[in-house]
Design a protein that fits this description.
- There is one protein chain.
- With 478 residues, the chain is an alpha/beta fold.
- It folds into 2 domains: 168 residues, Aspartate Aminotransferase, domain 1 (Alpha-Beta Complex); 281 residues, Aspartate Aminotransferase, domain 2, CATH 3.40.640.10.
- The chain is 35% helix and 11% strand.
- It contains 15 helices and 14 strands.
- The strands form 3 sheets. It has a 7-stranded mixed β-sheet with strand order 3-9-8-7-6-4-5, with helices on both faces.
- Helix 4 packs antiparallel against helix 12, helix 6 packs parallel to helix 12 and helix 10 runs parallel beside helix 11.
- It is globular, with a radius of gyration of 23 Å.
Amino acid sequence: MPTASSNSHSPSAAYFPDEPELPRLVTSFPGPASAKYLKSLGEIFDTKAAYMLCDYQKSIGNYLCDADGNLYLDVYAQIASIALGYNNPALIEIAKSPEMIDAIVNRPALGNFPSIQWEGILREGLLSVAPHGLDKIWTSLAGSDANEAAYKAAFIYHRLRQRGKNAKFSDAEMESTMNNSAPGSPDLAILSFEKAFHGRLFGSLSTTRSNPIHKLDIPAFKWPKAPFPTLKYPLDQNEEYNRKEEDDCLTELEIIIKDWDDRISAVVVEPIQSEGGDNHATPYFFQQLREITKKNNILLIIDEVQTGVAASGTFWAHEQWNLSTPPDMVTFSKKFQAAGFFYGNDELRPQQPFRQFNTWCGDPSKALIARGIVKEIKEKNLVSQVARVGEYLYDALSSLQDKHPDKISNLRGKGRGTFIAWDAPNLAARNKFLLDMKAAGINIGGCGLHSVRLRPSMCDFLRFTYLMMLMTLNSTFI
């Protein structure tokens, strides 16, 4: 196992020469200052889901500092949203730039008043790493917003196809939509999968199926859901079982599509179901899904909000599927620090203005950060590094699983970069594990019913050997 001195050869050594070699704990978890400040903050802001109060000015690289001065090795990274570590100097320089000052101080309503720099920012940044075949972009404010904008594009396209390109809106459509009724407000749907997560905004919630607490008390569209394969791991040792499971799910999907009789505008799917438990499917499943959507004139939306931006060992997780044709839309957010969706078909852009629209239509300051992240990923070859280190981490965890099969099971993520997860015996054991790891200086997250997930940044992975060491040496954690 590499030693601490190995870190001098890692990509973040130049970024963060003062980054510590190990977590530093000066209090218990949670510390007294965190508890005090969280209580005070809780009087004006909901802190029920807060783990700790953080001091981001003192956080560095892969280490998150809390209000008590504890430094945690962070393999959760703000729910998979920190691409290049805390206080990355390359991004700080962008934040100081005249472009950034202009974008923040004179924040434009991009739909009406885009700046003269906007095209260049998009072409040099987000569009330079667009998924194959998707050369256009719509920018949004967050992942949920990106998905909802993609849904709107799908519905508008669906009706364009039914109505005809040159047909005008009828008086009945114009009048009925103001009463939320057909034909102006048609009975169309987005199909999602069991255990899926696509956001917490009002429309995206109707496609989220991962946890009832997200949806309770919120009115929902009566949209269909299809079964997502429940595979056995390792995938390469359970191919016969998994193929049957995937075929059964695909058969059920086709039955649902037939029952809905041309009312499904799009299917939305995550390459790996993240919040629902890091559930995988094989390339075969997604290849067949692409063919089914094409056959039924249904759009395919790939939600790469959490899997995108190199986390899976390729820039986009769906690159690993070898689809016959590209997906129709790919949504993004999180590690890009920006949000939106890519598309290729001009007809997914509404013919009339103000149909896909809001005041901001994204944020040029976030697009500038995204451009900087893209530059660093390219210059430092971070995609291949994620793949390399993911292989190391997976092998190390596989050895732990062999030693402790009653504590760590269903390890998954082989060949998927650092997008790795495993199951604890039950929810109580998982939650205790997460707390024990924080008490040892490791900030790590859970997902699904009783899964643990890794979501590190891309800037330095050799330090994660300490995660393996702690897990191996302290039997309390496993």
